[in-house]
Design goal:
EC number: 2.7.1.17
Number of strands: 24
Helix content: 25-40%
InterPro entries: ATPase_NBD (IPR043129), Carb_kinase_FGGY (IPR000577), Carb_kinase_FGGY_CS (IPR018483), FGGY_C (IPR018485), FGGY_Carb_Kinase (IPR050406), FGGY_N (IPR018484), Xylulokinase (IPR006000)
Catalytic activity: D-xylulose + ATP = D-xylulose 5-phosphate + ADP + H(+)
CATH topology of the largest domain: Nucleotidyltransferase, domain 5
Family: Belongs to the FGGY kinase family.
Bound molecules: adenosine-5'-diphosphate, 5-O-phosphono-D-xylulose
Pfam families: FGGY_C, FGGY_N
Distance between the termini: 58 Å
């Protein structure tokens, strides 16, 4: 039996590879960043080979720098940014950059799907056909890049492409497949009806596997490239939020996950498929076999902070910029930020809305803007909490993961705005932990992911709401909720202006 498993967290800003031992301790961790390709407003793409290179560099560093013996790495699995379209030709070569989950160019395709199928579509997929989801991207390529479409023989999602380059096998796990909105959730198979309505060959859809299913062994070519051995087994993996929920131990109805990655996510474990949010919240297959989860997604959570830092403090240390928010006050001296800088998915499914700072005063300084960004992102999460509460959700614990969970200030802001106990993980890498848990369970180290969680999941510090802050944030959130409705039209007109006057 090998000593370690690897959890590959293929995020939007970077890939993080964690090596864990049988006790669930992270013995080593490496990461490698990559950029977004943003050719036009609302466009977000990445080169799939950058994911492969980044993952491989991280693995090579685990072996050469952290001195993990390749023969001790028994299994690998994945957590992946969802929905991104990777189109392959008959030789499984990439045909174009991947169109990502936060790309909002496909509003016409979203409308086309609803015009042709209406509520039937939501009944089959349990989701609206939103711009971020894979089907709208397939239709966009079909309608706008016919020469590429003609050569397209397969499509996969980001983590599936990296797993393919590792094993030589094409596959997609159920949790990620639900996010394509081509899966018939009730039947657990690709929807022939949807493929027929939109004339998409069913042969393009990859074989479906479970998150803990064996997906192949490392090929000799990839072994030479990465330093792994061909004895290392690879497992299905999951959508990053399913993996995050596993890694965060979100296995009870009283717990909810708050994830501040590039995107922001409020996620609830669903024991069965009975609940129906009518597409207002996403509904997905879980990485845990025959279980589900629902979630609301803020498109620019961590991305808002990264954008602000890159734009207004490019030469400064990231942590120093975040820490400067301490100089401001609870409520950022009455300055509000709405995180809609690439459009929004939930609670407002609006590709044309854009962000705003509201209430700018001559007294405001840059640290007030930083604080407003931190608070505005969590106000958007609060909107999602409100939807859950309106649907009977009753949570007493919030498990916070993602890069944003590295900030004690941001964790306290969450406790104050949610008015609930917020706990972090010992290592905030929920998705990477979940991916490693899928490998460990797939290898038979544990009987189930729930069983594995008892050993692998370790909670960190708790943050309790501070009553006077809760009161101030409640007042501010009531003001915040007005901004979307009062800026929607202005945003759309300014977006038109930007597009007409593109360089
Ligand atoms: N020390 C930090 N404090 C606050 N936010 C952070 C910190 N480090 C990273 N972040 C935020 O976390 C985000 C990246 O989180 P991560 O979970 O790695 O995202 P992804 O999986 O999308 O790549 C960044 O957008 C950044 O804004
Ligand atoms: O679109 C979604 C979920 O529906 C996003 O959560 C993506 O999966 C990107 O995740 P991060 O890179 O932000 O972790």
């Amino acid at each position: 039996m090998g000593k370690y498993v690897l959890g590959v967290d293929l995020g939007t800003s970077a890939v993080k590879v964690s090596a864990l031992d049988h006790s669930g301790q992270i013995v080593a961790q490496e990461s490698f960043g990559y950029d977004l390709i943003q050719k036009r407003p609302g466009y977000n793409e990445q080169n799939p080979e950058d994911w492969v290179s980044g993952t491989t560099v991280a693995i090579v560093r685990l072996i050469l720098t952290d001195h993990l013996a390749a023969e001790d790495i028994e299994g690998v699995s994945f957590s992946g940014q969802m929905h991104g379209l990777v189109l392959l030709d008959e030789d499984k070569k990439i045909l174009r950059p991947a169109i990502l989950w936060n790309d909002t160019r496909t509003t016409p395709q979203r409308q086309e799907i609803m015009d042709k199928m209406g509520d039937e579509f939501i009944d089959i997929t349990r989701n609206q056909p939103l711009e971020g989801f894979t089907l709208t991207k397939l239709l966009w390529v079909k309608e706008n890049e016919p020469d590429i479409w003609k050569k397209a023989k397969y499509f996969v999602l980001p983590k599936d492409y990296v797993r393919y380059r590792m094993t030589g096998n094409l596959a997609m796990d159920y949790s990620d497949a639900t996010g394509t909105v081509l899966l018939d959730v009730a039947k657990g198979q690709w929807s022939q009806r949807i493929c027929d309505v939109f004339d998409i060959p069913m042969s393009m859809c990859p074989p479906l596997i479970k998150s803990i299913d064996f997906a192949g062994t490392v090929t000799p070519a990839y072994a030479e490239f990465s330093g792994l051995t061909t004895a290392t087994k690879v497992f299905g993996g999951a959508a990053d939020n399913a993996a995050g929920a596993v890694g965060a131990g979100i296995l009870q109805p009283n717990m909810v996950m708050s994830s501040i990655g590039t995107s922001g996510v409020v996620l609830k474990y669903e024991d069965n498929a009975d609940v129906n949010y009518h597409g207002v919240l996403q509904f997905e297959d879980h990485a845990i076999p025959d279980k589900f989860y629902s979630m609301g997604v803020t498109l620019a959570a961590g991305y808002s902070l990264s954008w602000f830092k890159k734009t207004f403090a490019p030469a400064e240390d990231f942590n120093d910029v975040v820490a400067s928010a301490e100089k401001s006050t609870v409520g950022a001296n009455g300055l509000l930020y709405t995180p809609y800088i690439v459009g929004e998915r939930a609670p407002y499914a609006d590709a044309n809305i854009r962000g705003s700072f509201t209430g700018i005063d001559g007294i405001h300084q840059r640290h007030d803007f930083v604080r407003a960004v931190l608070e505005g992102i969590i106000f958007s999460f609060r909107d999602l909490f409100d939807i859950y509460e309106e649907n009977g959700g009753d949570f007493d614990t919030v498990v916070s993961i993602g890069g944003g969970a590295k900030s004690p200030l941001w964790l306290q802001i969450q406790a104050d705005i949610f008015n609930r106990k917020v706990v972090s993980l010992k290592n905030e890498q929920g998705p990477g932990m979940g991916a490693a848990m899928m490998a460990a369970t797939g290898l038979g180290w544990f009987d189930s992911l729930q069983d594995c969680a008892k050993t692998f999941v370790h909670f960190g510090k708790e943050y309790r709401p501070i009553p006077e802050n809760v009161k101030k944030y409640k007042k501010l959130h009531d003001i915040y909720k007005q901004v979307y409705g009062q800026t929607k039209q202005i945003s759309a007109e300014l977006l038109d202006f930007r597009r007409e006057n593109m360089k």
